[in-house]
Fold:
Amino acid sequence: MTGAWIRFAVSAGCMVLGLVFMVSAVFGVNRFKHALNRMHAAALGDTLGILFVILSLIVMRGISMDSLKLSMVIIFFWIASPVSGHMISRLEAMTDERLGEITVLEKNNGILVDMPDEERADVQASSKKGKRKKGGKGR
Amino acid sequence: MELIQQAYNVLMTAIIVVLAGLIILSIVRSILGPGISDRIIAVNMIGTMVIMITAIFSVLLDENYLVDVCLIYAMISFLGVVVLCKVYTGVYLQRKHMKADLMAIEDNLKKQEALEEEEAQI
Structure:
């Protein structure tokens, strides 16, 4: 009986830890301003979040065919997630024309902000160039 | 034994509910996100969370085949992200009249410099 409760405690701890990682990933994606910063937050959930949640399911199940398949999901995710992250960052590096610029914080009604979201959307939507000043040679 | 089963059920149900809330927040970001890559990142994260929920359901409902659904979902979501990135890179380069090829980077840079010089003259 005590062993069963210990197993429950371990799996509950792993699951809550994975949930904490997912919450911080979603929080980061909603909070950061630029796409590359958002990718940094999203990769947290793609690696550690899914690792801990599925690890807790493996602890629940014990060693069986199902837990083997669940660990296959983790292995596949850890191979696929960096590849898709690389693709997304390459898309961002190609399409974002202000990528090389250093953002300068401005005061807007007394609050420090960098570029507002609408302006970035305008830059990305129109095919006009927004004068890249720094970097951009290596792409 | 009855009690521990109940505890497992409560734990997994609570986690599924929280993950559903997180999915709604990600959908909000995928609608708001200014650029196309923000939307792709949000959709990718929604896929991750759906995989987690499917895996938890496979244990909660004791249905083994849901794990296979998980694996296939992971593969298809990866494929979707790769295809979307390729398509939007191609669309962008075509709009700028550039070549969509890895070997054409120098060509594209020269073209861009020529365009910038032209603009400076105007």
Notes: Residues 2-121 of chain B form one domain. The mean pLDDT of chain B is 87. The helical segments of chain B are 2-32, 36-60, 65-95, 105-121. Chain B touches chain A through 56 residues (CB under 8 Å).
